[in-house]
Every structure is written in C-alpha cells, then in structure tokens.
Amino acid sequence: MKEIPRLNTKTNTAVEIEEDGNIVLSWKPWALYYPGFATAEQSETIIKLAKVHLAPSSLALGKGETWENTKGIRTSSGMFMTASEDKPGTLDLVEEKIARATMIPRSHGEAFNVLRYEIGQRYNSHYNAFNPAEYGPQKSQKVHSNQNC
Q1: Residue 47 banded pLDDT, cuts 50, 70, 90
Q2: Contact between 99 and 47 (Cβ < 8 Å)
C-alpha cells in the first residue's frame, strides 16, 4: 500500500491514500472514500439497464407489519440486478473494485440495489441485517455497503 499521510485536524489522525485511489478515512470504524469510483459512462450504463425494470421500492415486513400500514415508508422506485444480468460487463468491473476496496471476495456480495428518487421521495426504515425471529429466514445478511451517487 502506498501511503501518503495527511493530518486530519479535527481528530489529529493521519488519512491514508492507497495506490488504487481509496482514501482511508478511518481504520476503526473502517471508512473509505473512493473518488471517481464509477465513471460517468459506467453509471449511465447501469441506469439504462435498470430503468426498464424499476418498480415501487419494497420493504421487508416484520411481525405485525402489512403493506398497508407501511406503504408511506418507501416511495422511491428500485430494482435488484446482478453482474451476471449485465451483458456489457459494467457490473463485473464495479464488483471487482468493491472486492479490492473492501477486501471481501466477490462471491460474498449480493445483488446491486439500484434506486431512483423523484423530488420528495424517500427510502426510510432501512435495515442491513434482519433477525430471523422477526423477519423469517433471509438469503443474506449485509456486512458492507457501497454507495455511488
């Protein structure tokens, strides 16, 4: 790792810049900043692929929750997509970058959640892990989130 220490004047700690452009903001908790993570062209490709499959965002329902009593929690549109569904291979490149940045193998990843927000829309009540006693069995439990806006 190529290290270029800089001083964070608020915490009086060093910030590290890695060879691939990751900026390590903190080791505990681990936080990275990766400027230019996806190119404009990659982002446009993902948007184009996802756009035709967007549907109202859904919510995992816990005990006592129904679609009716939770319908205002998420008002955005979204869809899930895997790299295997992406013929141009853009998501393969993004997955590879995520794996390098997080040091977590691609095989441990999950589908990409592509979201679209109109003005005033929201995606509230977001849980990354679910208690099976409350939500039933889950396909996976999230250990890392990567956002590209």
Answers
A1: very high
A2: no
Gap between the Cα atoms of 2 and 18, Å rounded: 5
- Tokens at residue 144, please? 């890392």
Candidates 67, 69, 6, 62; CA nearest to 33 is 6
- Give residue-wise pLDDT tens across range 120-142: 877 776 555 666 776 666 665 55
Please list the alpha-helical segments (H only) found in the chain.
Answer: 40-51, 67-70, 90-102, 132-135
Q: pLDDT digits over 51-67, tens only?
A: 999 998 877 777 777 77
Check the CA dihedral 125-92-46-36 and report its sign. Answer: positive
Report CA-CA distances (Å) from 112 to 20, 35, 128. Answer: 22, 19, 14
**Helix 40-51 with 90-102: angle, nearest 10 deg:** 120
Return the structure tokens found at 50: 């996802």
Indicate yes or no: pTM above 0.70: no
